[in-house]
Amino acid sequence: MYPEDLRYTKNHEWARVESDGTGVVGITHFAQDELGDIVFVDLPSVGTDLDQSAKFGEIESVKTVSDLFMPIAGKVIEVNNQLRQQPELVNRDPYGSGWLVKVEIADPSRAATLLTAEQYQRTLPGR
Amino acid sequence: MAVRHTLRSPLHERHVALGARIVAFAGWDISLQYSGIIAEHLAVRRAWGVFDVSHMGRLAVEGKGAAALLDSLMTVDIAGLEVGQARYGFICMSDGGILDDVVTLRRDDTSFLVICNASNRAAVIPHLHQHLPSVNPPRIEDLTPSTVMLAAQGPEALEKVNDLFGSVPALRRFRGAPVSWLGDAVLVTRTGYTGEDGYELIAGAATGKLLWEHLMKAGATPCGLGSRDTLRLEAGLPLHGQDIDTTTNPIEAGLDRFVQKGEREFAGKWALERVARNGPVRRLIGYKTSGRSAVPRHGQAIIQGERQVGTVTSGNYSPSLEVGIGLGYVLPEVTRPGDSLHVDVRGRLVEVEVSSLPFYRRS
Fold first, then answer.
1. What ipTM was assigned to the predicted interfaces of this complex?
2. What 8-state DSSP symbol labels residue A44?
3. Using the beta-carbon criterion (under 8 Å), do A62 and B293 form an inter-chain contact?
């Protein structure tokens, strides 16, 4: 439920750092489960520069709306347009086809400040 | 020892065992969802689902003066109900504001059952008591804590419940009858709040628990408050506390068909006649977004051109239509189906069009 090759934040976002200095960002299994059925995702435009922890969008479920915060600073190079017609991909496959944005990471060394899968799981309430 | 301040259905442990997410609503712990709001919603539209609605108020009003009391307080004719007939209507204040929307069933010559909203039970009971006549005052008994109420809704619901009970008298809509089951009686009414056909079932707590188990075994999808809200909104049905309340009247809410015309006196009649005569100052309309977008929500401003013309009262996602739908009060001239408006959704304008109700109709 929490892949080891990703890095995480306390706000339930994940980031995958690729070898070419780009990163993929999404929300975790815990987050999609808490939100329930996702019905709309509001994502930034390609080209937007975002600081770490900056709000980059909103994710809406039937019952709630949550802000999305960047796990790592970067410039948006691609957004997941499939989510326009199929927002439920975030529920079904939060680490794969439910990805949110791809960025050119400003400082890849900052990824080390994020939580590992194990550290992130320890922040979750016991079920 | 730990004191809990919320009420719970006798079925609470069953819901927890099914993995329900529990939320607090109207002083009760209630299932929000089991498998997911959209899945539950679609199960009710396509097959059948069962809701535990035990939180709803169930008030017995009995005695020679029962019909007269209820008749004096309801916007619809209660005394004229046949045995086994139910009717939806409003309990209004003298200014025409809606204290609650209720369904009243006549059980026999002198016995009625009033089903009210959970959030208003504590207001409706004193309201009834305050209007008791000194001659032949009826008895008012709150059956809520000792009974269970389930709603079985969907195109397969009638058949599945009929199968379970072995034999149910053929009921027209808004009719009810007691059915014998496992040595006890279950009150079955062909009523609901989803826009689908189905039954609501009332039984004592012990029988109610058995009934839930049997319905689950028969393949019902357990459904919670989340899907109850998306279903009723698709059906264009108002929710007291959101779309109607003591500051709104049935005329402006477009529900004047539930205000009886004629000679009968009832609380709020004069105020409502005045509103009908002068025309309401605002109207409740339905609207929907054109596609996938942020969903307009309760309290958000409805905009036309440069000005705010209204406010959203209920807004949600429609799983059947895959758009945002909702209700809101707007200035009376802004009400033609097809009219284009915007809603200010957290600082962004989302385009919507006025829609006739219901949003979803069974074919």
1. 0.91
2. P
3. no
Percent of chain A with pLDDT over 90: 90
The shortest CB-CB distance from A60 to any of B36, B37, B294 is to B294
Least confident range from A109-113, B261-265, B318-322: namely A109-113
Give which of A33, A39, A81 to mutate to test B binding, by max B Cβ within 10 Å. Answer: A39
Tell me the three state secondary structure of residue A61: strand
Question: Does A60 contact B33 at a Cβ distance shorter than 8 Å?
Answer: no
Task: Read off the pLDDT of residues B109-138 as tens digits, 9 standing for 90 and up.
Answer: 999 999 999 999 999 999 999 999 999 899
Q: CB B37 to CB A37 under 8 A?
A: yes
Distance in angstroms (rounded) separating the CA atoms of residues B195 and B130: 34
Give A33 to chain B, closest Cα distance, Å. 10
- The span from the CA of B243 to the CA of B195, in Å, is 17
Taking an 8 Å cut-off on Cβ atoms, the answer to whether A58 and B317 are in contact is: no
Q: What is the 3-state secondary structure (H, E, C) of chain B?
A: CCCCCCEECCCHHHHHHCCCEEEEECCEEEEEECCCHHHHHHHHHHCCEEEECCCCEEEEEECCCHHHHHHHHECCCCCCCCCCEEEEEEEECCCCCEEEEEEEEEEECCEEEEEECHHHHHHHHHHHHHCCCCCCCCEEEECHHHEEEEEEECCCHHHHHHHHHCCCCCCCCCEEEEEEECCEEEEEECCCCCCCCEEEEEEEHHHHHHHHHHHHHCCCEEECHHHHHHHHHHCCCCCECCCECCCCCCCCCCCHHHCCCCCCCCCCHHHHHHHHHHCCCCEEEEEEECCCCCCCCCCCEEEECCEEEEEEEEEEEECCCCEEEEEEEECCCCCCCCCEEEEEECCEEEEEEEECCCCCCCC
> In chain A, which residues have their Cβ closer than 8 Å to the Cβ of B293?
40
pLDDT over 60 at A127, yes or no: no
